[in-house]
Every structure is written in C-alpha cells, then in structure tokens.
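Record type: ASSEMBLY
Status: queued
Input:
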Amino acid sequence: MSITINDIAKIANVSASTVSRVLNNSGYVKEDTKKRIEAVIKEMNYIPSAIARSLSKSETSTIGVIVPDITNSYFGEIIKGISEIAEKNNLNIILFNTDNYLHKEVNALKLLKEQRIQGIIMTPGFGEEKFNDDYINTIHNLNIPIILVSADITFTNLNGVFVDNVKGGFEATNLFIKEGHTKIAIITGLLSSEPAMDRLIGYKKALEINKIPVEEEYILSGEFKLEKAYELTKNLLKQKDHPTAMVVCSNMMTMGVIKAINEENKKIPDDLSIIGFDKNEFLDMVGLNITYLEDCPVELGIKAMNMLCDIIDKNGKNEVQRLTVAPQIIIKGSEKIINK
Amino acid sequence: MSITINDIAKIANVSASTVSRVLNNSGYVKEDTKKRIEAVIKEMNYIPSAIARSLSKSETSTIGVIVPDITNSYFGEIIKGISEIAEKNNLNIILFNTDNYLHKEVNALKLLKEQRIQGIIMTPGFGEEKFNDDYINTIHNLNIPIILVSADITFTNLNGVFVDNVKGGFEATNLFIKEGHTKIAIITGLLSSEPAMDRLIGYKKALEINKIPVEEEYILSGEFKLEKAYELTKNLLKQKDHPTAMVVCSNMMTMGVIKAINEENKKIPDDLSIIGFDKNEFLDMVGLNITYLEDCPVELGIKAMNMLCDIIDKNGKNEVQRLTVAPQIIIKGSEKIINK
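Status: finished
Output:
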C-alpha cells in the first residue's frame, strides 16, 4: 500500500526521473508538467523523507554561529556583521557561546550537525588543548559548510576569513623600532591559538630584520586574559631595567595593561609605550590615545556570511575559500619613545 | 485519492479518534493497537502536517533570543546567562539583533512564530514608536511563551525579569542630595522605553521628597546614545551656572559624558559629579571611579531562562510571572560634591 515515486509517475503519466526532478527542484521540467506532478503529489499526500527534509529545510533556514566570548564586544561586532547579511538572506542564527572551553565548542559542533542547518560560522576558542582528536574529527566529519572567522585551526584547511596577524605583529614591532625602541616586549595569547602565534612570528621577524636580538624573557604569555596581562605588567614595571615598549595582543589584555600602569602610577608612553590590537573607542574618550592594529570585526562578520551564502548557493561543490584581510595600524601616539 | 485519518482508521480497524490519540500521543491507547496503527501509518506513508510538526519539534529544541544591540556587552552578558541555562536544558538559541529598530523586532517575532520554537526571551528596543499596532498585535498573537528581560512593554502584561528602575533613579538622586547637591540633572533614554521612564520617575520622586523643585531644563533626553549624551554634556558644561551633578541612565551614555568632560578639560567630580547605570570595569582601570547602579545582566539572563524553562515545563498553563530585581548602588566617589 506504500506510495512510491513510481505511483506518482504513473498517475501523472511521466517518468519517475521527471518526478524526482520536480521533488528535488533540479533540472528542467515543463511548467505544466511540473504543475500536474505537484498536484498528484499533493492529492496523494506523498511526503518522502527527502521532501519532508527539504520542506523543513525551507522553513528553518538557519545557520550556526559559535563564538568564544559573547561578552567581548569584538565578537558582538562579528555577530552584528553576520546578522546583517543573514537577515537579507532570510537565514536565522543559532548561537553558541563557548566561554573558550574546547568541550563546549565540540558540543556546539555536534549539536549543529544534528540540526538541519545550512552552515556554520565559527571563531575557534583559544584554549590550551586545541590538538585534540575528538575536536579535529568532529570538524572533519561535519558535512556542513563551515567558515572560520578571525582565527584558524591548525591541521585543518577550512574556509575562512582571517586577519593577517603576522603582518599585524610585524607592523606593531616595526613601528616601535622606527621610534627608537630596542627593548620591546610582547604579551601574547596562548600560543596554541593561531592569531597569538602569528603575531609572535611577526614580532620576531621585525626584530630579526632590524638585527635586534630576540629576548625570550620579553615574550610574555597573557593568555588573552585581562587579569593575566595585568599581573605580568605589574611584575614588568617593578623591574629596574624593564622594556620601554610592549606589543599587547588583544583588547582585553590592553585593559589589563592599562590597569597595571595606572595602579603603579606610571604613564603611557612616558614609562611604557604600548601598541594594542583591536579598536576600543573608550580609550580615546578617556584621553588614552592607544595606537592599535584594527581588523574591523563587523566587516569580518559580513565577509564570512557572504562567503557562507556563496558556498550554500554552490551547494558546497566549490574549492576551499580562504580570505585574508590585512589589519590597519591606527597611530595615536602611545608608541612614542619618551625616556631612553 | 488523498489519504485521510479515516483511511488509516479503516485499515487499522479502529476509530478515527484512536488514530488521532496515537498521532498526538495523547490519551490512552492499548500498546498492540498503537503498534498496529503506527505500522499502517508507516505503510501508507501518511504524514499529516501536525505529525511532521511534532516530529521536527523534538529534534529542534530551540528558543529565540532578541536583543537590541549585540555589540553592547550588557546584552552579551544577558545572553551569556541565558546560554548557561539553555545548555543545561539542551536548548539551542536562535539569536536576533535588532539594532534598536522596531521593524526588525516585529520581524524577528514573526519569524520566530513561524519556527517551531519553545519560547522567546527578548529585551525590547528603545525606539521612538513603541506604541505601534503591528507590534502590540504581533506580541498578543504569538502563542509562544515569551519572557521580557530588563525592559517592559507598555500595554502588555508579559512574563519577565525586570529591574526596579524607579528605585534606581531614586537612589542615585537621593545619594546626590545627601551629598549636598541641589542642582541635579538627569540624562535619560527615550521616554518611550520603560527603564528610561522609570528612572526619571525615581529621580523626580527623590527631588519631591526632598522638596527640591523639578527643573524641566535639567531633564535631558540622551536617547541611550553615546553621541547624544556627549553633545548634551558639552552644551551643559558651557553654561555658566550648570548643574553640579548628573544621573546618567546607561553605560553607553556614561561613556559619552566622560568623553565630553575630558574634551572640556573638566574633572569628575570636581566640575561635575556623576552617577551612572551598569557596571563598566574599564572605568575603574583607568582610574575613573564612577558610582553606578548595578543590575547584573548575567543574572538577569539566568533568571529569565529559568523562568522560561519553568513555563515550558508547565506547558504554558500558568499565571503570568513577573520578577523584579532591585539594583544595587556601588559607591566609588564620583557622586561627591566638591565645588558648591
């Protein structure tokens, strides 16, 4: 008694492959033939699972978005960019906030895989244990288009919109050198995160090109955390012969550094010159003009979402797309050398 | 040729209402009868829309979250609280960012109504044209549990977790009066927003109780916008006999006020005492100790999500739940009077 595609074909007086083309909305079918087939399908109340799936698909046009810290406005801006384009394309966003926990990221990916979503945009967290089998396997077995934004994942070759962080690290360090600094420290994130590692590579490159030796004690791991950057800077400022300049690799850490400088009654750039990463409007407002590398997170979100739409349109049958955006250096004066 | 519930009933040799009970999984049906009916349904490939709907429902356990500004960390923190509890309850979050546009809010509500979601948590925006028929009708016709968080909507009586903003406005103003201020201004949001209106009511109440006349020119509409608060404060500071104190009704506006004070080379609280709303860790870090009213957005998110879970458990058959949290005043010194 089960109704098959052949029954529909017989009643509509067409071949089964024609019915299939109508069901999948693929390939050419004459308009009146199409209408006749659709009428039969409706009359027979025939809903094969594939159709049921595609019906629901058109109802819940959703994409997944995974961010490591929803309370950081950097990620809020990425999401703002994503939603602008998602809205225009009638796509909903399922949001996961991982608090930088790898297990939450893996879990979000697994949950999204179970959903009938169109694709995923993700900023991987910057936890310590990135090179975890479960994680890499989950990503490899997704079978859903995925776009990384702002941070890459080692051992994978995924679509993504990235920032040229090597260039960022290089430019920051090079600007310090041009100003006359030779004792330049860097507060990095966890080196298991690509942006942190890349900024450090750029830092080292600038020193090497300028024949300044790389001092391992000037490379501080701030883990992208405000508190950690605060502690490291407090300790640094207590040293007699401390560096005169510091590259600070995230907006949260810049706040930690400023807190420390403030508590120690020191001044920027008189006691310590700094160059930060990411825009922080508030710094200007309070009269702290911090030079920074800017990567426009709203733009990254827009680019990532456009890339995902393109991949969805092509039905996933396209080459891996990887776009790298160069950060811009915004000079405000905090890089200057005052005391040599 | 269309297969109906009666066809299934005939083949399974039961009544149509028994089939219905199996389809809806409601009411008692003998186990072997149920199995027989299910076999027929499967054989006939019968999928009425209701079933299709309930099938998908169990797969996509989602709630909708609507916020007015995803780049403001206040809302990031609310979402953080919501996700913590959502995750524990295996609920996904579909996110909408409205950029404070009423039409985007209405659109988000309509889109969510079409989805098979379990409920909605929303912070209404603070646009000008709140009392719009389409808006109120959309909300009244949702038929999905909805929880408001942090801001109420006039003309509705919805579930929600609110902040006692009358108390907030009152306490801020009263603290200024205790310090000796008599010329106290307030920068409000748009008065079509409940929090803005409530804080103004509290402000007026404190003045009245203390027999200080309410001066209309001391009530400034900052529209919750940084730029607007900046301009208003610039103008205010240029007046010879300007107020000595100002209640600033949001963290974004506090930033605008500080920017203006800074540009005019004035000092807090020497030239203008201020009390803000919402925590801003950064202010402390740069040595600006601003007294503020704190309403713990992460906690609001947690409470809203717990309320939604409770309502889902009770299948929506419960009374309207409205919870009001008192804000806490965090005294830092910016309220002090220096020049009389």
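Annotation: Residues 49-60 of chain A have pLDDT under 50 and may be disordered.
Annotation: The domain at 5-48 of chain A is CATH 1.10.260.40 (434 Repressor (Amino-terminal Domain)).
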